[in-house]
Amino acid sequence: MRLIENFIGGEYTAGQGGKTFEKRSPVDNRVIARITEAGQADVDAAVRAARAALEGEWGGLTLEQRVDLLYGVADEITRRFEDFVAAEMADTGQPSHVMRHVFIPRGAANFKVFADVVKNVPTEAFQMATPDGRGALNYGIRVPKGVIGVISPWNAPFLLMTWKVGPALACGNTVVVKPSEESPHTAALLGEVMNSVGIPKGVYNVVQGFGPDSAGEFLTRHPGVDAITFTGETRTGAAIMKAASDGMRDVSFELGGKNAGIVFADADFDAAVDGIFRSAFLNTGQVCLGTERVYVERPIFERFVAALKTRAEAVKYGRPEDHAANYGPLISQEHKQKVMSYYRKAVEEGATVVTGGGEPAMPAELAEGAWVQPTIWTGLPETASVVREEIFGPCCHIRPFDSEDEVVKLANATDYGLSTTVWTTNLARAHRVAARVEVGITWINSWFLRDLRTAFGGSKQSGIGREGGVHSLEFYTETRNICVKL
Ligand code: NAD
């Protein structure tokens, strides 16, 4: 069995406290790795290493040298593509084609794109008049924020972690990463990449462990951490925000969602069914941008529900490496219990179960895995808990609507505000609705189409701040103004 260690100052090290925990496969519940849990002393060492790198070789590099190194990281990830695919599949149990086409290539892209951004984005300059008539010139310079604490989740571990590490390093910071306890593999593997391309020691550090009273909390409370970027549940974000308030550290939060999909009767029907199917069930519904509330205009409601049911019932369960499979398990038994509790609650609250609602019959060798059926409900009021709360599973509630105003109100009646997907062939209406839905990201006639230069983040309780393109520079650097009297 594999032992996964912390990565501190360029070296893999066992935790100083000697504690370990196990990682089980979502597919069959076998223990696949033991992980050394970082204690306070390990987090101290990681933060010290990150500070030393900042004040040492890394801090002394030119922008061009840094950019070249990050291109090297992207190339090395691509060279070791199969290792990353295997590591991520082991942790998440998701089909290999999702890893190959989305999650791992995006990990490499996260280093390339932000290397390009820092190379090309100018800073501001203002000339001003002065009483003596000679004037003054103001110009901004960007400086790294320092040591960045990166706390990431398990649902697309490598993509989401590098989405933060890429821009943080491009901007000249150093990082201490705490990956989810459910997905320790790829963050650890990235340490090998950093060493082999010559990223100076201490620039990239990984502390493994849990949140409360473990590596996550030790890192977010650490006075040596200058800013914290976090992706995960809204509740966890609140705890981290409290920790960050000591020392006035800046935070960037990408949090939960309860996203609405809106389908008008004039939509390209097949494209809309396909789009909503993907947004509800890709990655077994474990996508923050996924759709758990679907609103369909009444004239096509019955037909739409029937078509989505057909698609949901056609998923092929299987191991990630099984090419015929297109649907994986949930991340863990614990998460399965949570999702199953919502499946029961939906029935208690009076839902019509269109399809699913339980566990699939799996062959004996997969019977212990975290499998649940894709599930569709109708007939619930908007007050029902499965319509209000983020489940983070392969399920959605579908409700008919009769007007544009009504559906905008329904979509906005939530504490969350991450994303929405709108399906219509009426261009004017598409723009109108997009401007009125209170979310950070709207897709029209598409879903999860990502240009990494665009602003990414949530409204309301779905996040604080924006990352992506120049927006990442706002968080990962500090702009200093220099005023020169001429
Ligand atoms: P989580 O909040 O349980 O855990 C996320 C990370 O925080 C983990 O590494 C965990 O160990 C750590 N953590 C937990 N408690 C902590 C504490 N008190 N202090 C410091 N660290 C702590 O989230 P999860 O279950 O891993 O991920 C699923 C959630 O993430 C969903 O809510 C989903 O919507 C959200 N998510 C959001 C986005 C986005 O971009 N907005 C993307 C992906 C996932």
From TrEMBL:
Q: Which domain of life is it from?
A: Bacteria
Q: Which organism does this record belong to?
A: Zoogloea dura
What PROSITE patterns does the record point to? Answer: ALDEHYDE_DEHYDR_CYS, ALDEHYDE_DEHYDR_GLU
- The question of whether Acetylation is a record keyword is answered with no
Read off the InterPro entries from this record: Ald_DH/histidinol_DH (IPR016161), Ald_DH_C (IPR016163), Ald_DH_CS_CYS (IPR016160), Ald_DH_CS_GLU (IPR029510), Ald_DH_N (IPR016162), Aldehyde_DH_dom (IPR015590), OHmuconic_semiald_DH (IPR017628)
Ribosomal protein: present as a keyword of the record? no
* Xref: CDD domains: ALDH_F8_HMSADH
| Swiss-Prot/TrEMBL keywords | NAD, Oxidoreductase
Annotated active site residues, numbered on this chain, are: 254
Which protein family is it in?
Belongs to the aldehyde dehydrogenase family.
EC number(s): the record gives 1.2.1.85
Please state what the protein is called. Answer: 2-hydroxymuconic semialdehyde dehydrogenase
Q: Which GO terms describe its molecular function?
A: oxidoreductase activity, acting on the aldehyde or oxo group of donors, NAD or NADP as acceptor
**Domain Aldehyde dehydrogenase: where?**
13-482
